[in-house]
Amino acid sequence: MPLPSFASTARNRSMPALAPMASVMGLGLCLFLACLAGILSRPSGFLSAFWPANAVLLGMLLRWPRLAQKASWLVALVAFVLADLLTGSNPLAAVWLSIANLFGVACGWWFMRRLDAPRLYMRRQSSVLYLLVGCTLAAAGSTLVGAGTGPLLFHSSWPQTAMMWFSTELMNQMLILPLILSIPTRSPGRWFARIKSRASWTMALPLLSVIATEYAAIALGGPGALAFTVPSLLWCALAYRLFTTTLLSLLVCIWKIATISAGMLEFTPADLDVAVSLRLGLTLLSMGPLAVACSQIARSELLRRLDRAVSHDSLTDVLARAAFLSQGQRRLERLQQSTEPAAVLMLDLDHFKLVNDHHGHAAGDAALRAFAQTVSQVLRPQDLLGRVGGEEFAVLLPGVRASAAQQIATRICTAVRAQRLVLPQGEQLTVTVSIGVALTDGKAQTLAELLQRADVALYQAKAAGRDGWSLCAAADAHNPALVANLGV
């Protein structure tokens, strides 16, 4: 088995920080347990009614691409064969079935590893279609190699074995693979904290609906009972995250298999038509909630990108003027309610017009981008940075008093002064910044008033020689003579 080409760095970052051999051995243990679970579902003398091992292997190889190495395939083969031998299978059946399973996984992996990360991890509306194609290839590949065991080992014809194998494998892949691909990337603590923050009795309603409709399906029975749970699962897809939706779909389908097989169905060629129809029906049932969940994710991502495009400056990627003013005002009001201090900075690049005149507007744009990035690195995560004019920026510093505001202004001046921007011609461009600082004084103030005071201080800094900062006292902003002299 060839090594994969690790094209997606984002996928590799999701790999657990374990030693390679420990990861491979962990994969082997998971597969061994999955094989045992599948073997326990085998009817007497035939294939398993539910075989999760193949989907688990494919999902882990796709979710953590660094596992896709020769050692992993070898360990998987050993786990498959060992589980069969320990449960009484003859060596020929164990080896043949294991090779068929691995070949199907390889077919699915060959197709799906070429998908980009958003499609693979179920974040696009088309993800379900690509998933169906990949699962179909995996099911067809294993069927092609494994169906020949029917006439030799299980006393069934090749077509019967092929239909049972394909329908089983397709159902297993469509139920289990999305669950593994949608495993949250957050740490367990952050994941549970998010669940706790959203927990309410209304969040339990979709789950209670699933339980109620499943009970109704058992009580009423009939051919339509298979679809009773579909509306409830669609509700779950709208209310819950993708991982939760796929988990519920898997549990519902396993429950349906268990209840139906316990009452009237053996998953053998004797019940070929009913068994194949049930499995394909469950496969299609799982696609509806999955498609809705993927559409929700794609819609949320699109709205997030649109909101960011509206609220952020396209050149520097900091807050645009309107977004800075609205977010800053809300933040300032909360600070004033809790009597916390705050500071506002007005920043203006010195002699920026000369940069555009001497080096061109492309160099000016590059200087603005570099400047915004440098300032962002100096600021704290809770600070707000926005572009309020051509080369003018504003910063809101929550919880900051005079000394801390002056220190931050000094660090910004130092960092910008040390910044070196290499132009395409090889010339180095340096810029400096002047900063005006205004502080809250315990009275009710708007962000616009603080920006006006910071603007006065900014002109004081420019009048003092630029490349520095100045602190504006509350009285300075209302001094007509000072404002006139500074040209405000």
Summarize the structure.
The protein has 488 residues and is an alpha+beta fold. The protein has helices at 9-13, 20-40, 53-63, 70-86, 91-112, 117-120, 127-146, 149-154, 158-181, 188-198, 205-220, 230-239, 242-263, 272-311, 321-337, 352-359, 361-378, 402-418, 447-463, 480-486, and strands spanning 342-349, 384-387, 392-398, 421-422, 428-429, 433-439, 469-471.
Structure write-up:
The protein has 488 residues and is α+β, with helices and mostly antiparallel strands. The chain is 64% helix and 7% strand. It contains 20 helices and seven strands. It has helices spanning 9-13, 20-40, 53-63, 70-86, 91-112, 117-120, 127-146, 149-154, 158-181, 188-198, 205-220, 230-239, 242-263, 272-311, 321-337, 352-359, 361-378, 402-418, 447-463, 480-486; strands at residues 342-349, 384-387, 392-398, 421-422, 428-429, 433-439, 469-471. It has a five-stranded mixed beta sheet with strand order 2-3-1-6-7, with helices on both faces. A two-stranded antiparallel sheet has the order 4-5. Strand 2 (384-387) and strand 3 (392-398) form a beta hairpin. The protein starts with 8 loop residues before the first helix and ends with a helix.
Helical fraction equals: 55-70%
Write down the overall mean pLDDT.
Answer: 84
Instruction: Please indicate the percent range of residues in DSSP E strands (runs of 2 or more).
Output: 5-15%
Largest β sheet strand count, sense and barrel closure? 5 strands, mixed
How many beta-strand runs?
Answer: 7
Order of secondary-structure elements: HHHHHHHHHHHHHHHEHHEEHEEEHEH
Termini Cα gap: 72 Å
Largest beta sheet: what is the strand line-up? 2-3-1-6-7
Uncertain residue ranges: 1-18, 475-488
CA gyration radius, whole angstroms: 32 Å
The backbone outline, from C-alpha atoms, is: elongated
Task: Supply the helix-strand structural class.
Answer: alpha+beta
Put simply, the count of helices is 20
